[in-house]
Amino acid sequence: MAKSEEQKTNTAVALKYDGEEAPTITATGEGSVADEIIRIAKESNVPLYENADLVALLSKLELGDNIPEVLYKVIAEIIAFAYHIQNKVPEGFNRESGEMERREKPIN
Length: 108
Known about the structure:
Required for formation of the rod structure in the basal body of the flagellar apparatus. Together with FliI and FliH, may constitute the export apparatus of flagellin. Belongs to the type III secretion exporter family. Keywords: Bacterial flagellum protein export, Protein transport, Transport. By secondary structure, the chain is of the alpha+beta class. It has one domain (2-100): name from scop, CATH 3.40.1690. The protein has 3 helices and 5 strands; from the N terminus they run βββαααββ. The chain has a 3-stranded antiparallel sheet.
């Protein structure tokens, strides 16, 4: 969620990440729609992250779009932080070694 200093309007973007594909845009909105996205996220204990520049970029995408590859690293860091603050680890992560198990994906 982010507020534009000029407009003082909330903008929110929700992402879904399944651990397999790139995160996708599941909701975007401004004003009261953004407030509702944020309310639902809070009620569902979904971590929130504020970054006006990132929200501005992501809000230009369509629902269901994957995030662009250029944003993979920053989104990965946000997802890792969200896991950390919830004391969770991704499936296949070994806490002792700090490494992910390798999962091969079949080539179609």
